[in-house]
Each structure stands twice: as structure tokens, then as C-alpha cells.
Amino acid sequence: MDSCRWRLHPPGPGHDRRPPGMVTLFEILYEDADLLVLRKPAGLVCHPTKGDEFSSLVSRVRIHLSFEPHMIHRLDRETGGVMVFAKTDEAGAELRALWAAGLVTKEYVALVRGRMPLGEGAIDAPLGREVSSAVAIKDCVRPDGAAARTRWRCERHFEREKEVYSWVRVWLDTGRKHQIRIHLSHLGYPILGDKIYGGDERIYLDFVVGNLSEAQRRFLQVPFHALHAERLWFPWNGSELGFMAAPEPWLSDAGAGKDVPWFDDPYAPPTESRTSRPSGPFVGPSAGSGPLVPGFNSQEG
Hints:
Layout: E1 5-9, E2 22-24, E3 27-31, E4 35-40, H1 57-65, E5 70-71, E6 80-86, H2 89-100, E7 105-113, E8 119-124, E9 127-129, E10 139-141, E11 149-160, E12 163-172, H3 179-186, H4 202-208, H5 214-220, E13 227-236, E14 239-245, H6 249-255, E15 292-294
Parallel strand pairs: 1-14, 6-13
Antiparallel strand pairs: 2-15, 3-4, 4-6, 5-6, 7-12, 7-13, 8-11, 9-10, 11-12, 13-14
């Protein structure tokens, strides 16, 4: 770790510093001939589902590069943080080999409900489909599932409105779908704001049809689940290369026990009630920012 070349990035400036009607494709943490490392914002999906060319992270990377990138790993839609793309076939193959060999360290931070024991621990619990759930994407701990191991360290507690919360640092030894969210919930400490594993999956069902009630929002407290991919490092070209992206302001505020005003997901597909994106040509990047494109206003946290 002492020889690791870290690149540390706090959250970038807000949309009010951008040209009117423009938003960044993403915030670039590092880029060279082989690698593109960026901050994925909470709320933006990795893969295209519905929507236009700005509606997923990989499609935005495609706009930035003007060719097809190699997406080596992914994060859940509501999880923000560090992501790495390869720009060449050779770099893509090398990064995939590092992931397969377990040589990539992924460190997350999470805000969970409950008083988790201070100190370190680990959970080995296989994961598989939750067949009794109305949520098609929901998984659970089950004996016939795929092996999954998560390590954690609880760093502090705080109380707010008679409830106790814990700030937890998490490392993945495997990379299963929803692994951290399921494991922490299974331990009895669900991630704050988790619409699937936070205690009432009906919240997710109402959320996907745009029908969250005020009571459900008060229960969630934050618009996205409170999980962030803060650090990632791996061996590269004879040394160790590391990147860090600090949590978005809303998550930092929640972790400090502050109220987080609810805000709409700026990356949600437009609906009839939303302002449509203005049309216009592609606009190149400005100094010190990511590439800019026409779009609806977006706020970081």
C-alpha cells in the first residue's frame, strides 16, 4: 500500500457552475491511453435499459470515447463511486484477468440502521434467487446459492430521533449481485434507504411505478440507498494504482446525522411531468470537468 499511486477526488462542482442547459457526462478521475476511471453518480444505471443515449453510464462513456469501451465491472443503479473502463482490447483482457484472480481491492462505505458492533468482522453466506419475492431482481442468503464473502469494519455510531445508525466500511471478496446489501441486511443492519432489502420490499414496487408515499420517503430518509464505492486499487505496470471518490454530499450529510432533503433522481427517464431535454449539438469538455452534453439539470447530492 505504501507504493500505491493514489488519485483522490472529492465530489465535483454542482450543476450551477456548468453552462446553462448542460450537464457532465460523468466526472473523470483519471484517463490515459488504456484506462478511463470515473465517478459513477448514484441513480445512473451502468447498462442501457430504456431512454436515450444519456440514460446509462456505458452509453455516456461511448459518447466520450467515440468507440465501444470495455466495462470491466458494474455497480447497482443507486450505488455511486469509482468505476474503471478499459479503452483497448489488451487493457480489457488484463483488467479482467486481475478481477478473476482476485487482485482488485474494492472498498465501500455504507450507512446502516442499528448499532453494529464496533470493530471488524466477516460474513460467508451464499446468495441466490429469492423465489418468494414479488421483486424479480431480489436475491437472498440461501444454502444452495453462489459462494459470497463480505468483510466489514464498523467505525462509529450515532443517534438521530431515537434511532441508532452505524457507519461501516466494507470490502468484497466476491462480487455477487446486491452482495453488500443482502449481507448487511442478513446480519440485521440494513442499509439506510434500501428499497429492496431495507425491510419492506413494497417500497420498491411502489417506487418503480413512481408512487412513493410521503410515509415511505420518511422511512427511507434518503433518495438513494446509502452505499458508495469509495476506493479501488489494483496492480498495474509494475506498481499499484489506486483511486478514491469521496461520497456525494447527501451521503456525507446523512452519515453526519443531518437531515437530507428529498430530491428527485436527476437520471430517471423523463416522464410527462418532467421537462424534456433540450436539443442541440454535442459540446466538448471544459477545463477541469468531464465532457458536457445537452441535458436536463443534474445536481450532485
